[in-house]
Write a structure and sequence with these properties.
26% helix, 400 residues, two-stranded antiparallel sheet, three-stranded antiparallel beta sheet, 11 strands, alpha+beta, 10 helices
């Protein structure tokens, strides 16, 4: 499609600044708008920077002649041949940083190129011949990729000429297709540059065996064409890169031989938990203390001691008789027995508490087997009043 591009430095260009007139402050903005409107009309009609008398009158109105003379003096417009209504002018075309208009030949070639590359017959024949590998750089391309340089395209062997058959098209990546087209535009008018261009872009033979991406195989199958026998099929184009170019996406380290799986031990016997270390008892499996011997690891506690208790301290809630503790290490005093205390007694021996929590006057402390006296009911005189919705205090039932 035709379009007009205005450079970022348009307002500060010396030729545009020459349009300003201190005596007429509005003349500068009027000339800039007049020039840009003529450029838009030329791009819309694909006249390649050429403008006519009718376009000048449309853009300038009653002051078209005055605006045209100022733009000619600034070097933005130059006259061409013709007289009267057939007279023509041309906008500046050697300053792409100022304005840039696509030529009519470029727009026509883009339309022809799109028609050739989207021809179903040309596509199928080129894909079956070349696979999914670029014929210029040899890299495997990615179908349906419309952004990156690795996207799959069809390139014309003879740039600027329409394709008469599938032999005039080859599979190419978007990067090679774009660079080749740009270099051809720069070298088409220079014989020496054209010879260098032809020597630099040499066509590669199709890969053997052919490489296809899964999406291309599906498209060929939908059109009734299977892939050739012996072809290599992959899910993504990056899987065919070497580890030096693809990094961690392809080259992943394989598991070492003899390495155990993370969730299951291959060396632990039945009486040991897979995640426990050698020489440590497995909770809930077998008999407590039935572990494998290990060098340099302390032996587990015997069967009459809780695995989590320390030496010399009785097991809580143990089934053995009171006072049956394990001997403490040498030089460490054995702690006193806790069997003569109730669970709520935290003050030590010599003080007893009944079921209500009040300290008694004396007597022997109760044992764990002695029944606890039920707590006394609260006194009705000590009941605290509660607040109603209006904020008044009302005594509870039974109070004074």
């Amino acid at each position: 499609m035709a379009w007009l591009r205005v450079g970022d430095t348009f307002a500060t260009d010396p030729r545009v600044l020459a349009l300003n007139d201190p005596a007429a402050p509005l003349m500068g903005p009027a000339c800039r708008g007049f020039f840009l409107e003529l450029a838009a009309l030329s791009a819309n009609s694909s006249t390649d920077y050429v403008i006519t008398r009718g376009q000048i009158n449309l853009a300038g109105g009653q002051v078209a002649g005055q605006l045209l003379r100022r733009c000619e003096r600034a070097g933005l417009i130059r006259p061409l041949d013709g007289r009267g209504a057939g007279r023509r002018w041309k906008l500046i075309d050697d300053a792409p940083e100022l304005i840039h208009i696509r030529l009519a030949a470029e727009v026509a070639w883009e339309k022809q190129q799109k028609a050739d590359t989207q021809n179903p017959e040309f596509q199928v024949a080129a894909w079956l011949r070349d696979g999914d590998a670029c014929r210029w750089c040899g890299r495997v391309v990615q179908p349906s990729d419309n952004r990156s340089a690795r996207g799959k395209t069809l390139d014309h062997l003879n740039a600027g000429q329409r394709a008469t058959g599938p032999d005039d098209l080859v599979v190419a990546c978007r990067g090679c297709n774009g660079r080749r087209g740009k270099e051809w535009l720069d070298a088409r008018d220079d014989p020496a540059a054209r010879a260098d261009y032809d020597a630099r872009w040499q066509l590669r033979p199709p890969p053997s065996p052919l490489i296809f991406i899964r999406s291309t195989v599906d498209q060929l199958a939908d059109r009734g064409h299977p892939v050739p026998a012996g072809a290599v099929i992959g899910e993504r184009a990056k899987l065919f890169d070497t580890p030096t170019t693809s990094g961690s996406e392809v080259s992943r380290p394989a598991p070492q031989a003899g390495a155990a799986a993370p969730a299951r031990s291959t060396t632990a016997p039945d009486d040991q938990h897979p995640t426990n270390q050698v020489g440590v008892a497995a909770p809930g499996t077998g008999t407590i203390g039935a572990t494998h011997p290990a060098q340099g690891v302390a032996a587990p506690p015997p069967a009459d001691q809780h695995p989590a208790s320390q030496a010399g301290v009785a097991k809580p809630n143990a089934d053995s008789a009171p006072g049956a503790t394990h001997p403490a290490p040498a030089g460490v005093a054995a702690p006193e027995s806790r069997t003569d205390r109730i669970p709520t007694d935290r003050s030590g021996a010599g003080r007893d508490r009944d079921g209500s929590g009040r300290v008694g006057s004396g007597g022997s402390p109760p044992t764990r087997a002695s029944p606890a006296r039920p707590p006394d009911p609260p006194s009705p005189r000590t009941a605290s009043p509660r607040r109603t919705r209006r904020g008044r205090r009302r005594s509870r039932p039974g109070g004074t």
